[in-house]
Amino acid sequence: MSNPYKNVHPYMVECAAEAARVAGGVTTARLAEPGPTHCPDWDLRTLVNHWVLYTSHGLEHRALREQLSEELTGRDFTADPGWARAYAEQLDRAVAAWDDPAVWEGEVDLGMAKMSAADIASMIVKEMAVHGWDVATATGQEFRISDGAARFVLDVVDTHADLYRQYDGFADPVPVSDDAPVFERALAHSGRNPHLARTAMDQ
């Protein structure tokens, strides 16, 4: 990642646009349905709130080197009927905050630890995609990204898999063929069963 701004920011733009599109397809009825998603112990509302918080507000705050407020971390974003539009607008602000090569330099203070800005940005782009897939699959949609973005997500998943599993962020890898589509391999390596997306689309 010799030039993270050049190499990562385009995928941030792409994944943010797809996340916004998927959010727009989440109905109020779906949000009200009980039951788990592909994230253990999380219903759809909990999953969406996590997704919105960290991939839009969190993304902007990391660029600005600011901590998330208690008001934001405790907010139910889905209580606002216009939450999907607000999420899309916040994603635009967050992506714009990273549209400066200087922002990608140095470290970001996470409160309990510090991490390079490039690594943080890359991990949040991965969150946009894998949680975007979680939301899409739970709502009968598809999460569609280019092969380039999928390869990037796969690389981030494999680079940080041990860290995520240490904090129960990933389940054990799901077996998948070596010639499976790249995004399916990224999902499988993060502990998700990519075949569930097809099942959900058939419902």
From TrEMBL:
InterPro entries: CHP03086, DinB/YfiT-like, Maleyloyr_isom
NCBIfam families named among the record's database cross-references: maleylpyruvate isomerase family mycothiol-dependent enzyme, TIGR03086 family metal-binding protein
Protein name per the record: TIGR03086 family metal-binding protein
Organism: Streptomyces mirabilis
